[in-house]
Amino acid sequence: MNDLFDMTKFSELLTEYTPKVIGAVLTLIIGFWIIGMIVSGVKKMMKKRDVDKTIQPFLASLISVGLKVMLLLSVAEMFGVETTSFVAIFGAMAFAIGMALQGSLGHFASGVLLLIFKPYKVGDLVKIGGGQTGTVMEVQVFNTVLATLDNKRIIVPNGVVTSNVITNISGQGEIGVELTFGIGYGDDIDQAREIILAVGKSCPHILDNPAQGVVVAELADSSVNLATRPFVKSENYWDAYFYMQEHVKKEFDKAGVGIPFPQMDVHMIPNKDN
Question: Is 274 among the domain residues?
Answer without folding.
Answer: no
